[in-house]
Amino acid sequence: MEKEEEKCDIYLEILKVPFNSISFQSCDDVIRFSQEKPDELLKQLLIERQYSLALDWITLNNYNEKFSSEVPQILVLKLLDNDIPDFESAEKILDNVETNIVLIVIENLLKNTAEFTVRKFLISYVISKNSFQFKTLDIWALQQELMGIILIEEVCLKTSDKSQLLSLVNQPNLIIEQWIMNLKLACVDKGIQKISSILNSVKCKSAGITCNISRQEVDCLCWEHYYLMVEKYAVKALKLSGTQISIHEILIAEDCEIQFVMPHQVPSKSDWQENASVNVCPVCKIAVFSIFFRKHHCRRCGRVVCGDCSVFRHIVEGYGDDEVRVCEFCYRNMTESLSWDNDHLVNIDLSTEEEESDSAETTSISTNIGWYFTTDPLHNQRLREEFAFDFTPSLSVCHSLFTLHKDDSRAALAILNLCHKSFEKVVDSISLNLHTVDRYYVIKIINTLLLSAKVRFGKILNLDGVSVCEYYKQWSNWVESLLRLNLVGLLPKGTLNNVLEIGELMRLQLLQQGGEDLLLKNLKQEKISLKVLRDKLIKTENWDLALEICTKEGFDKYGVWSAHGVAALKAGDFKTAREQFDKIFKKTTNKNLNTKLSLLEDIVLFLENNEFKRDDEETTPESPLDTHSLKEYESNSSLLIAEKNKKEDDCSLFTSLNLKECDYYIRMYGSHQMYLQFLFRHELFQESIKYCQQIMVDEALFSECILLSSFKSGHFKQMWSAIDDVDPKHVWINSLIHRVYRYLNKYDHLPCLVEVQKILNDNLTACKTLLRMYKADSYKDLLLRNSYLKEIILLLKEFLNSNLVRENDKNIDQTDLFYKCETVECEVENALNQQILLTDAQFYLTEFLGNLENSGVDFKSKIKLVRELLKDRDPRVSNKVKNLDFEVPTLFEKEDRMVICVILLCLDTDLKSNLTAIRELVDKNCLDAGELLSLTLQTMVKTEEFQNLSFVIESILSWNYIPDSSIIDCFRPALTMKGISIQEHIVKEIAKYLTDTKDKLNIYIEVGFLKTAFSEINNVGTIETMERLLKAAEENEDKIVIHLCSKCTIFVLPFGLLLNINIDI
């Protein structure tokens, strides 16, 4: 009875439920429907959320077995469909139900329940169990739905936004993308944080930045797709349209207005107005397009308009049923309205939820237009094609998007790639001379992004990535500097393209895709280009940039400092010049080292040749300040600085600014030699001598900088006068003079040495030095030095006329005289007188022979011949003669006197007068007359000059210096010279001067004239001569002479031989 009453109560409760699809008039209708259609009744109860009533109804009718799977479902719904859902109890119910029942329960609940709370719990339960029992469920779809539910329920708190996103619950990727497009980046960040654990379990087959993603994966949300989405819109945020015009170069034109008429047909995209042709919005006439103010196209007329004038949406033919962007003018024409239609304007607040407004993203931007996805793929595709951020390029938006990137390595590479593309646009605008991009702003974007990439690479300790960032930053800074200085044209052709190639190869190496060899080649080419750029920057006086290039690339900085210093010097900016040159030069500690500093020499030369005026002096047009410029130099500032350096001025020897600077540089960086040369150039002779005393100058420096310089410039007397003034007692100079002698003598500075010796009254030493100078390889050249002989004679006479000879007669060593007299016992005075005579003789000899050479006579071959003959005759003089091979003989060398005599005897002119001089030489110098005759004959035979043969022989023999027995010895060398054939009459001419007939016969035999010898045999008184002749004939195979000798009969008579010759003819 109680059971029936309970049953009746339950049916009454069911009767009271306001079902939508069924209706009951009475309890009988309920009972009947329950019996006929129990499944339908249970379904309707669940739809109306009558969970307790459904459970009571099942229990009352014993439907527990029939609805075994529905019971847990109802229990779960009952626990979850409350203000405070009991997830823990619901989970326990599912855990205690059989496995097959749980699967049915979950499938039914997911199929029939739209409540986010229930679906979220069920999907989370399935994913958390990850059991084989749920293999029939689409886990991937459930993951996507769960992420969609979380994004809508937990992230998006505005009701208006939730309603729009409900249709996208199964496509969380569209939710994220829509938020990105509408710059709700805080929502994106919060949503990714909440679903990151789910994303970690979502499998995505694609990998890599440029991978191909299948349609299913594109419609899903996974890490890969999320990263691609972020990178894609980060690029869009920095979109640099080739038609955008730099803010600094906009020209507003076209003052006249032309009435626009909307075309009858919708233009295709290819017929749209070109971006580059429009600078100002044609609708409002106010908006000026720039890198910050985007251009948009009206889909109806194809014109380029601004964003504010194209906020309208309308259905346009060719674009389906979607409302697309149109301009105000076309919208009015299509709607026949002259006012704004606010129904077509969608006001979207791009900031985050109200409670987080204070900490909202700084990149959030409010606009009048929102971008919304639907479940229609075609609509979504057109929306993506049409989408663009209203203000691009936007560094803040791009940076904020990359902050959403969770993979540091991939984000850094993506940023690097974006920087490369941006830099490529800058390069293109430079190479093509286009002004469609604000290069400075783009470079600023690049540098900011590079910093972000560098930080990310640093986090993962990728030093190679950091290096690539530094490379791009370095070049972007250089390009910016060149652009600001208007010097980008200095870049060698192809340099920036090479930079792009290097950057691309570096990024490939980060991805481990090779290219090492090509990278090295490009880097080598870059080095060459940078050196060229550095040189051009130096020429244009852009020192800082040139120095920066040298620093970064490891080039030599001295060239930049040097050029900067020289330019400053030319402009008169002495302070800057000193600063730059101080970096180059090192203060010399050992100033005795004469290091070659060509730059220092150039500095001194410039300063010496240019005068700089003080402020109180009138600057003439010829002043270097008017002819040179330096960018960093403010007019005449260095002159003020120079005036302030009074201490340096007081210490300086000079009054003019340029010479004071010279004095500074040489004292600071130069050597003693350079400073002495500087003082000498400005005729500061006493200061030069004082400086020499101060530094304790050595003989080499004193000789080179003082003596030789003054001698060559003609200031020798003035310099020596300065020495007398500084050192009147010659104490200092006497301590130095002997070393100076040795130095000048060693390095053959003989003219200067003579002058020093003459000033010091060292006449004999001066004569010796002059004699050393009296050398030449021809007499015509020696004739030019004949003045030395006159000077020697004057010095010797002056020495003789002084009392020095008498006072020092006993102390003067004969060996110290420049010519030692042959008479050892002679006194010094006699020796000097003899030397005067010999010098005078040499003077006239040189004059005579020099004039002959000038007239065409050549003595060189004869001199060489005679010297060779002397070497062969007397090996002892071989070395002495060898040293004279390249000098003509003079009377001052004993070995040369014989040569001179032979040369004079072989002359055709003035032979008689020459013989007198020759005999005097022979007498005074004890020359061997026999040797002289022998050498003369040999020379004549060698040269075949026999014109004066008889006269020479007769003249020398007439001196009676040669005994008759020695005459043949004088003739024999000339007549028996090897390799020379002498004519018979020449031999007879020479032989006739032999007094002994036997000597004649011997000469004929030795020479080989056997017939002549046979004809002379009758006068010979010995049989040995005949035997010798026969033997010579047999050796020479002279058959005639042999026959003659064999046919003759010899009778010995008291007076000689009598030959009885019987010859058969």
UniProtKB/TrEMBL annotation:
Which Pfam families would you find in this protein's record?
FYVE, TPR_ZFYVE26
Ranges in a coiled coil: 590-650
- InterPro entries assigned to the protein according to its UniProt record, in alphabetical order: TPR_ZFYVE26 (IPR057946), ZFYVE26 (IPR028730), Znf_FYVE (IPR000306), Znf_FYVE-rel (IPR017455), Znf_FYVE_PHD (IPR011011), Znf_RING/FYVE/PHD (IPR013083)
Q: Does the keyword Ribosomal protein apply?
A: no
The record's section on CDD domains has:
FYVE_ZFY26
Keywords from UniProt, A to Z, are: Coiled coil, Metal-binding, Phosphoprotein, Zinc, Zinc-finger
Which GO BP terms, alphabetically?
double-strand break repair via homologous recombination; mitotic cytokinesis; regulation of cytokinesis
**Matches recorded under PANTHER family:** ZINC FINGER FYVE DOMAIN-CONTAINING PROTEIN 26 (PTHR46591)
Put simply, this protein is called Zinc finger FYVE domain-containing protein 26
Could you tell me the gene encoding this protein? Zfyve26
